[in-house]
Structure prediction request, 143 residues.
Amino acid sequence: MAYTSLAPLNAILNATATVLLLAGFVFIKRKQVAAHRACMLSALAVSAVFLISYLTYHYHVGEVRFSGTGWVRPLYFLILIPHVMLAGLIVPLALATAYFALRTRFTTHRKMARWTWPLWIYVSITGVVIYFMLYRLYTPIMP
Prediction:
């Protein structure tokens, strides 16, 4: 298997996490706690697989540069920079939010989830957008 095939896999994992996060949100609004828990734990597992795949990809492939020019270049970085910054926050936030839920400390879980969920969904969606901009809309500059 070529390591370059991990890039589309990463986008698929991000898209899957997005769907699971949205489904989890809908389920908790409908007070379907078991379905919410299943979706959120699945999103956590999919995101963990994504992180392993992402790190493996960049360890072997290196830094891939965006080739777009003109107005799309600042747009790409406007999406990429907050995505990268927030992606670093998501790991401890998602783990802590899940920890409080699994410990049945739901008051703390709900307070954290109000921050974690919007950031996590943003990172998941923009991960897919970045993939399409970097690999599909423009030719990536490989190291």
About this structure: The helical segments are 6-29, 33-61, 72-102, 106-137. Residues 60 and 84 are 19 Å apart (CA to CA). The radius of gyration is 16 Å. The mean pLDDT is 96.
